[in-house]
Specification:
It contains five helices and no strands. The chain is mostly helical.
């Protein structure tokens, strides 16, 4: 459902679906965490996005894609919005 909502451009709905999947995976599935963080980034929920990125990196420190593509963008967005 998250993928469908994402393709429709409904990032808020996609984030809700990915949040449910993230909880069901006990916050251990890196790809679900990536998609959830991406949708939080799109909906400008930067703090939640950063939290998810850090959780994924805690479990998968070699997952540099999430750090470069999402975490750094969210941190930069917070800095520029204040």
């Amino acid at each position: 459902m998250g993928i469908i909502s994402e393709k429709e451009g409904n990032f808020m709905s996609a984030a809700e679906h990915y949040q449910a999947a993230w909880k069901m995976s006990l916050m251990r599935n890196a790809s679900v965490g990536f998609r959830l963080a991406f949708n939080y980034l799109k909906t400008r929920r930067f703090v939640r996005c950063i939290d998810i990125c850090k959780e994924v990196l805690k479990n998968y420190p070699e997952y540099s894609t999430i750090k470069k593509d999402i975490l750094e963008k969210a941190q930069k967005s917070i800095r520029t919005s204040t």
